[in-house]
Amino acid sequence: MKVTVVGAGSWGTTVASLVAKRHDTTVWAREPGLAQQINDMHVNPLYLAGFSLPERLVATADLKTATETAQLLIIAVPSHGFRDVLRRACPHVPPWIPVISLSKGLEQGTLLRMTEIIRELLPGHPAAALTGPNLAKEILSGKAAATVVATEDLTVATALQEVLHRGLLRVYVNHDVIGCEIGGALKNVVAIAAGMAEGLGVGDNTRAAVITRGLAEITQLGTAMGGESTTFAGLTGMGDLLATCMSPQSRNRHVGERLGRGHRLDDVLGAMCSVAEGVRTAGVAVELGDRHGLPLPICHTIQHVIDGKLSARDAYEGLRNIPAGHEADPW
Q1: What is the mean pLDDT of residues 173-188?
Q2: What is the number of structural domains in the chain?
Q3: 275 is a domain residue
């Protein structure tokens, strides 16, 4: 099979590297210099320094060349650039081929999930999401991991599962696309909160409470939007949440930790070469919560920190002072 991965960040390059071991795989890089480094030296020093890539993995900075012969298209572009890059690719995408999103975010303004954007721009193409506790560097180094390919058509999901499964990366299928995408997006917001706890030094008990209550918020919003509650207890809910909140490799946790230590958000983001999706997702989550009549206090609080209305320390004081009711309640 000819597979194209659009986006040469850490996760896009990792997925391309795994798939390239069994399939003809091309990765599209925005920067021509990076594409040349992948082709000539089999490295991606910008996002995966210290790792060697498969020699048979081909890179290009030409979107038409990357997509026109694809039999499977994988989009590994952050949510804020997802629509634009996919729109530019659309004229060259062969008809009917499956399209998989690797992005764990929500579109600002429209509040759409990434598979909804795929269906809008490429009607008739099976749209899927690949999501789960997938820290790129661990997987590229050969450590065992599990992920989920989510699409309503389980026949398509099973076919994609066969393409994506490789070595110690176990790929599960799930029909609950809404639940999987909401879990993948909102865990980034909770990870910022967990990182703030680490930066403030408030203790593991506090961090555990925030992660747990964060999972409750994710589940409440996800089910209100049509997701299934069991999804949020699985890999794309609790699993992804734990990995993102606890790992030092997590970009969103890193942002929260720096905020907790008093750094300015612009300075934190300016020093990063990768995107922390939770910074943009928090506001979208708040809008979705308002639409469904849900308070989502963690998402609201993180958005206030991002907007500069609250310091990290004041944010934690506010969360601590919320009255405690029944555990099944929002807070």
Answers
A1: 98
A2: 2
A3: yes
